[in-house]
């Protein structure tokens, strides 16, 4: 084995999305950073973007998170150029529910017509006949998920699943109440919300979904556009001879067995760094110190954008 290969067993083990044959490695990849600045327009370095995707798959990553509103369209087109025809076993998860304004804004796009058009945009730009998992993203324009009816857009997505265009349904940027309402309507295989060492609002939701075998996929696992910073995190990283961001990812892997990671990067070097988190084990004493970060005062950074 060459130095550039990472055994799949080093990617945090596997998790089966409920009711499916999809069993990705727990350490995946989030493609949002592949678009241009502000997740808008073409990347600064398209060759590097293609290289990141190819390196990810070469190293065993078999779960890529995307959306056709990244770019818009551009991230999916890059994924297609880099990886199509897709290797067997690669799960591409996308999301719908927002669109991009010319001013780079992220308005909601939750009408039946908009959701249908978004599914077709994803199919076309990814070069697929059906989408493995589509997350319904709610609360566009809000920093935190806000309670509100989910039935109408979810019904539209259920109809697209019935038509065979969507195989499985997930949720994103949702409240626990919306998760509950959605689960009463249809099978939900994953929930994607903001969560990391410093943002623990979803602790109870993570545990509840774990008990029910549903995947929880934290977005901004590294803190998003402002990577996590904390003196405790830096100290623990030094003790473990790892980087703070590797520790942040390893902490998530140890937090709950249903957590699937989709750290984003536009850099092959950063991708390689992040993959090492799959084999990093954090002893209980250090986990306890890291747990305390989310309890308040000490966490810094994570001045996060409103959407994605
Ligand atoms: N559902 C939603 O509403 C939603 C919202 C946001 C994101 N997402 C999804 O979640 C995924 C992850 O979120 P994210 O990419 O925004 O945030 P993230 O994974 O928390 O962090 C990405 C940031 O960290 C940097 N980074 C990554 N690895 C690094 C390393 N080893 N060393 C130093 N810096 C590093 C990246 O810059 P470089 O490019 O320079 O590495 C980028 O600025 C996205 O790709 C997207 O698929 C979903």
UniProtKB/TrEMBL annotation:
Q: Which Gene3D superfamilies match?
A: NADP-dependent oxidoreductase domain
Q: Any signal peptide, and if so, which residues?
A: none
The answer to whether the entry has keyword Oxidoreductase is: yes
Q: Which residues form the NADP-dependent oxidoreductase domain?
A: 26-293
Could you tell me what this protein is called? Pyridoxine 4-dehydrogenase
Note whether ATP-binding occurs among the keywords.
no
Q: Which InterPro entries match?
A: Aldo-Keto_reductase, NAD(P)_OxRdtase_dom_sf, NADP_OxRdtase_dom
What's the domain of life for this entry? Answer: Bacteria
The UniProt keywords, alphabetically, are: Oxidoreductase
List where the protein spans the membrane.
none
